[in-house]
Amino acid sequence: MNSTIQHHNVIIVGGGQAGLSMSYYLQQSQVDHLVLEKKTLMHSWRNARWDTFCLVTPNWQCALPGYPYQGNDPHGFMVKHEILEYLDGFARHVNAPVLEGVSVLRVAVRAEGGYSVSTSRGEFTADQVVVASGGYHQPIVPRMAERLPASITQVHSEQYKNPRSLPEGAVLVVGSGQSGAQIAEDLHLAGRKVYLATGDAPRCARFYRGKDVVDWLADMNYYEMPVEQHPLKEGVRDNTNHYVTGRDGGRDIDLRKFATQGMELFGRLHDYADGNLQFAPDLAANLEHGDTIYNGINASIDKYIAKMGIDAPAGGVYEPLWQVTEERTALDPVAAGITSIVWCIGFTPDFSWCDVPVFNGRGYPGHVRGVTKQPGLYFLGLPWLHTWGSGRFSGVARDAAFLAEQIAVRVAACAAGDGGAMRAAA
Fold first, then answer.
1. Does the residue 1 lie in any domain?
2. pLDDT average, residue stretch 41-63
3. CATH number for the domain harbouring residue 152
4. What is the DSSP letter of 230?
5. What residue ranges are annotated as transmembrane (predicted)?
6. Where among 343, 361, 377 does a domain terminate?
7. Global pTM?
């Protein structure tokens, strides 16, 4: 092999919890590999979360391989600095072979077998490649943003840090998913005037019938359900996360309650024209949808408690604290005193650098439990890759262990000279 080109059995793209979980298991199998990280290990956790960010799942669900949560508050919710301490400890524990500050520019199939990996630091080859760079790459900001008054500061949720980082005045938060609801609450608790453009995000209770809802769902084996058994099948990957919070020990987020306290709610924002923000008349429907999901989850817990004969406190049905009396479909942001907009409408994946024919029309990789139809190419850390926990601290270890087994089989086949195994030329 050309001395200027490094070769490895496996190259892992991405140095977050998924990439390091993969490295952990490959080290257990003594498989040669290298992690390539565009910035620094755990960069997205360190730089793309607001100051009051905390986990929305209990600490006991932090189960990265060989490094479970060992603190004294398993049913609490780590705040940002505690999360970073946990992840830094995990990184030290894994001690992965990693190159930081290396952008992967192109991954392609080699005619000789295996893959070429072009980077900002030169060329590499690999028998197999694991893409562990996540699925949240390009912040979504609609084109209407270009037409908004220049006096309004606009940031995406990944840029938001705290209320003090925004100009004085009212704030419009666009999107009521997990990030939007929590950022709206953060601003509201700081005394800022908040306008919230909602979507059809679902919500769930924090605690119900004496336990955290996550604990109940774990008891019910919901988190063991593979994607092919979910009622929505692969469609569940498009679902918006339920909004709830672990802040201050954990609680529900109830947008109707915020409305009684002065937060102004609207339906989905769909345009800006003639000096007005224009909203769909679907606020009532959005709130009702969230409440229906909330009550549905609690009802499933009720059934489980009854079936198992569990002695638990009485349950109940959520009754709305506030009702929509008028669907307002227009708002002049300048007249309303809005000086900032926080876009909380998600991200799109960007795998344009992965020049391998495994993607669907929306740029999402086709795979079964992370294994693509292209031999030796895998994905790890995506939402619902296999189960609910695949993109989280709770489930990525299982997925990484599974892929490590697939990789080890191919490495053994290569070593045995199996003609059907992919091998990069040396």
1. no
2. 93
3. 3.50.50.60
4. S
5. none
6. 343
7. 0.94
Largest CA distance in the chain: 73
Position 423 scores a pLDDT of: 40
Q: How far, in Å, CA of 105 to CA of 117, rounded? A: 8
- Segment (H or E) for 91: helix 80-94
- pLDDT over 50 (residue 196): yes
Q: Tell me the per-residue pLDDT of 207-245, one tens digit each, with 9 for 90 and over.
A: 999 999 999 999 999 999 999 999 988 988 888 889 999
Closest CA to 205 of 260, 251, 255: 251
pLDDT tens figures, 342-362? 999 999 999 999 999 999 988
Q: Which of 97, 92, 105, 100 is nearest to 8 (CA)?
A: 97
**Overall domain count for the chain:** 2
Check if the beta carbon of residue 369 is closer than 8 Å to that of residue 386.
Answer: yes
Query: Which residues face 98 on adjacent strands?
Result: 35
Distance between CA atoms of 391 and 14, rounded to whole angstroms? Answer: 13
What region, left, alpha or beta, does residue 110 occupy, with left being phi > 0 and alpha being psi -120 to 50 degrees?
beta
422: in domain: no
Residues 6+ apart with CB under 8 A from 313: 209, 210
Of the candidates 336, 420, 324, 384, which has an alpha carbon nearest to the alpha carbon of residue 151?
336
Read off the tokens for 14.
């991405």
**What is the DSSP secondary-structure string of 163-210?**
GGGS-SSEEEEE--SHHHHHHHHHHHHTT--EEEE-----B--SEETT
Checking 286-292 for CB contacts under 8 A at 24+ apart, the result is 286/176, 286/198, 286/199, 286/200, 286/201, 287/198, 287/255, 287/256, 287/320, 287/324, 289/200, 289/202, 290/176, 290/200, 290/201, 290/202, 290/203, 290/243, 290/255, 291/203, 291/318, 291/320
